[in-house]
Design a protein that fits this description.
It is built from twelve helices and 17 strands. By secondary structure, it is an alpha+beta fold.
């Protein structure tokens, strides 16, 4: 049996740039500056106080009434995935078990789910109060904690912090009984999840799948970890909207954001038969790693050039066929330089002729949600034939030859490549192909 083609028929997104594709895309093309002072917790004691926050995030608003109690055990990461999933299914005009008034429009056993996630940070007030009961004479007693301290946590406490719970809740809410997975590979998670979902479609393991990534690291522990790694911008607390400056000569660090981007991946023939809106075809995929990335104190982009080259080959095209690059652009100087070099290894002297964009100046770095959201941006760029601007980009860093711009550009996009890399040395890339209407 020949491989079946996988296409994107629905998009769901929630991040600092907005919730829903219309708001998200409008904000991107208008060059919206959405970073602000962290309002999720008091950041006064941290060297970086800027953040990319989701406004009004609430899974309770989108789950069936019978499922609302479950929102009590949803961390913000889970809520972001649940909201993005609801938006994606509705965008694709696919009814699921969440719609009690209508039958599912896809067979439950043929509906898959694969959502990238990260290490979900626990809420300090909840854990701290329980840990306090195991302190004796000013010292934490691990024995007391094991004997009785943990009993001061709610019995379902752990269910808020398991990365696989993003996929678990989405599959339960929407009745997905087909292939299910959770990928935890940092900022590459979204692309890896979408690629695996596309392969389910290709080998006839599913007809429809929801895939992407979500993460919300804006907690004291999350910010502390990135601060200790020296990755955060600390010179723009008085102007947080300009703190993340990807590939710019003045870049000085990244800004943490939260977000979720999920895509409906569907068999092309099925999508065409129901006259679905097709944003793009998933034409190729590649992944790579660099073992040196294990040293997280040194800049590394996980052999991104190899991942991109593999994706281009998998799509059966050449680098000259690429019309748009969606880069990651963390704003961390060393990482930006590694990434710029990787893109140049693939495209050589033609790199300055290919429109490129990075959205982190608008959204912040969203970790496991990063490439899920950038995949949404890439699909919308192909649909609208427009390269979004790179917010806070004025002049390129030394050696950066990516064709970035501070304003949106209309251009013919037949093939777009979305790339991502993770702290730790992993990378991934996906080729999106324009589909004729």
């Amino acid at each position: 049996m020949p491989d079946r083609r996988a296409v994107i028929t629905g998009l769901g997104v929630t991040c600092a740039a907005g919730t829903g594709t219309d708001k998200f895309w409008d904000t991107l093309v208008e060059g919206g500056k959405c970073l602000a002072t962290n309002a999720i917790f008091d950041p006064a004691s941290f060297p970086c106080r800027a953040a990319g926050q989701i406004e009004g995030l609430s899974a309770r608003k989108v789950v069936p009434k019978s499922y609302r109690k479950a929102t009590k055990v949803m961390a913000r990461d889970i809520e972001a995935a649940v909201v993005a999933a609801d938006l994606a299914f509705k965008d694709a005009s696919i009814t699921t078990r969440a719609d009690a008034d209508n039958e599912m429009s896809v067979e439950a056993g043929r509906l898959g789910c694969n959502i990238g996630a990260g290490l979900i940070c626990c809420e300090l007030d909840e854990l701290g109060q329980a840990a306090k009961t195991s302190v004796t004479d000013g010292k934490f007693d691990i024995g007391t904690w094991g004997d009785s301290g943990m009993e001061n946590l709610t019995p379902l406490w752990l269910l808020k912090y398991l990365p696989n719970m993003l996929s678990c809740h989405v599959t339960i809410i929407h009745g997905a009984e087909g292939p299910s997975n959770c990928i935890t590979c940092g900022a590459t998670s979204g692309i890896l999840s979408v690629a695996e979902a596309a392969r389910w479609i290709a080998r006839n393991a599913a007809d429809v799948a929801i895939a992407g990534g979500a993460e919300a690291k804006l907690t004291p522990l999350g910010v502390l970890r990135q601060s200790l790694l020296g990755r955060l911008c600390t010179d723009s607390n008085d102007r947080p909207e300009s703190a993340c400056r990807p590939f710019d000569a003045t870049h000085s660090g990244t800004v943490m954001g939260e977000g979720g981007g999920l895509l409906i991946v569907e068999d092309a023939q099925r999508a065409q038969s129901r006259q679905a809106c097709i944003y793009a075809e998933i034409a190729g995929f590649g992944a790579a790693c660099d073992p040196n990335g294990i040293n997280v104190t040194e800049p590394n982009c996980g052999s991104l050039d190899l991942a991109v080259s593999k994706a281009i080959a998998d799509a059966g095209i050449t680098p000259d066929d690429i019309d748009l690059i969606i880069a990651q652009g963390t704003g961390v100087p060393g990482e930006d330089r590694c990434e710029a070099e990787a893109w140049e290894k693939v495209f050589g002297d033609n790199l300055p002729n290919i429109p490129a964009a990075a959205i982190t100046g608008t959204t912040g770095s969203m970790f496991a949600g990063q490439s899920g959201v950038t995949m949404v941006a890439g699909a919308l760029a192909v649909q609208h034939q427009t390269a979004p601007p790179t917010v806070n980009f004025t002049s390129p860093d030394e050696g950066c030859r990516l064709s970035l711009a501070g304003e949106a550009r209309e251009c013919e996009i037949n093939y777009a490549v979305v790339g991502a890399f993770s702290v730790g040395g992993q990378s991934a890339a996906c080729i999106l192909k324009r589909c004729e209407s």
